[in-house]
Design goal:
six-stranded parallel beta sheet; 15 helices; globular
Length: 437
């Protein structure tokens, strides 16, 4: 009997029903499943780029060339016009190049609007009074919230990727931006249930809410959740009224202090000192450890990795992957912090520019620097960033411990043989490999 509600899809490659023998549900023959995965890869990279562009556009910054590429990438993937695997690899590299352009645009938008970030200590506990937690990536949404809650007695807390907001002069000037609660995006169901506050979701990385806090959660911008009130524009009156109606929080110090706000200018101001320490053998190696975190047990690799690093190494970090270890006090090397938080995943271009500046400082290529990139969970924005790094010619990137869903053996072979991607294993052995290399 025919299953009710099921629609057959036609495969343009083999003229049979998609999902049948020898054909995947993507509508591409089984022998060409790699093409489907490469399409997924390009879609994810383009979605990540579009997210960066959205935040830039919110602040009035646009670029027609980026718009044109996104249109072309979607046409190549959403329609049956391209079944060439090699061309999809080229398109992925082009997506990486265009994402560099997008991240530079967003960086300019943030700095020209809010000032260049500066190192800032962020408290992780609660302050007595009413509260609102803002999550996501939207600095514009956070700014509007801070404006509307100023003088109301309501304290504002950031969560996850909004932690770096504390480093921007234009945002940290609001005294009621009092701290950060929680860590990576996936802790929100537990976190939001713990605190009787109103909640604002500003962008991606929002999860379907639990019933116990659904009525005090709101979304804005592109974020939408079932049963959650959406606030179009930036009128947060209902959110603020809800916060006022909820109980006060108590003064409860957190168990850690996060330091964020290390911009390119801050790092370059330390360039001479860094060069001296490297030449004296005090700093042996730099590691960029970051990316998107996942709730899987294997992701504990990153904390173990950072904990086992020798004391003559420095860790640069960004995105929510940093929450695996940014509560660890790594100390400093003669005044240079051993743990340097460069910001959101949106700030990945800062890491690239710092690497380029260090290469110029030591008069070597980026791949000759004592620098190793260790990246986690390649989906959406992280895919866009990965291809940006590959487009810039950066070699020897370590990925894992969970491989991206769009990678199969054929794609992995291309990544390892042509782009020198390496897979991580056990922290101790990986550190030995990286330092030797």
């Amino acid at each position: 009997m025919e299953e009710k509600g099921k629609l057959d899809m036609f495969c343009y490659q083999c003229s049979q029903t998609a999902g049948g023998t020898g054909c995947t549900v993507r509508g591409v023959c089984g022998k060409d499943a790699t093409v489907a995965r490469l399409q997924d890869n390009l879609l994810l990279a383009t979605k990540g780029m579009a997210a960066y562009l959205y935040h830039a556009r919110e602040l009035g910054y646009t670029d027609p060339e980026i718009d044109a590429f996104i249109e072309r990438a979607f046409y190549a993937t959403f329609t049956n016009v391209n079944f060439d695997a090699e061309d999809f690899v080229k398109l992925a590299i082009e997506a990486g190049e265009m994402n560099v352009r997008t991240m530079k645009l967003l960086k300019r938008a943030h700095i020209e609007t809010y000032g260049e970030p500066e190192p800032t200590e962020v408290q992780t506990g609660t302050v007595k009074g009413k509260g609102i937690i803002a999550t996501g990536h939207g600095l514009k949404a956070l700014e509007e919230l801070l404006k509307q809650t100023e003088g109301t007695g309501i304290n504002v807390y950031t969560h996850s990727e909004l932690l770096p907001a504390h480093g921007y002069p234009g945002l940290k000037k609001y005294k009621h931006l009092v701290g950060n609660l929680g860590r990576a995006w996936f802790d929100q169901k537990k976190l939001f249930s713990m605190y009787p506050v109103a909640i604002l979701g500003t962008s991606n990385c929002v999860l379907i809410p639990k019933e116990e806090y659904r009525d005090r959660m709101f979304t804005t911008g592109p974020a939408r959740l079932p049963g959650v009130t959406h606030l179009p524009g930036h009128d947060y009156t209902p959110l603020i009224e809800k916060a006022r109606a909820l109980p006060e929080l108590d003064d409860e110090p957190g168990d850690a202090v996060f330091t964020t706000g290390f911009s390119k200018s801050v790092i370059l101001s330390l360039a001479d000192k860094i060069k001296e320490l490297v030449e004296r053998g005090k700093i042996r190696h730099f590691f960029l450890v970051g990316g998107c975190d996942s709730p899987l047990k294997k992701a504990s690799y990153y904390r173990e990795f950072v904990q086992q690093l020798p004391e003559d190494t420095v860790v640069l970090t960004l995105a929510c992957g940093k929450f695996r270890f940014n509560d660890i006090d790594l100390g400093d090397i003669e005044g240079i912090p051993r743990l340097i938080d460069l910001g959101q995943c949106n700030d990945s271009i800062v890491a690239v520019e710092i690497a380029e500046a260090l290469a110029a400082l030591f008069n070597v290529g980026i791949n000759e620097l004592p620098l190793t990139l260790v990246l986690s969970w390649m989906e959406q924005k992280a895919v866009a960033i990965l291809w940006s790094l590959l487009a810039l010619g950066i070699k020897g990137i370590y990925l894992g411990p969970i491989l991206p869903a769009w990678i199969n053996d054929d794609i992995l072979k291309v990544l390892t043989e042509e782009y020198d991607i390496k897979l991580i294993g056990e922290p101790e052995e990986d550190i030995k490999r990286m330092l030797k290399g």
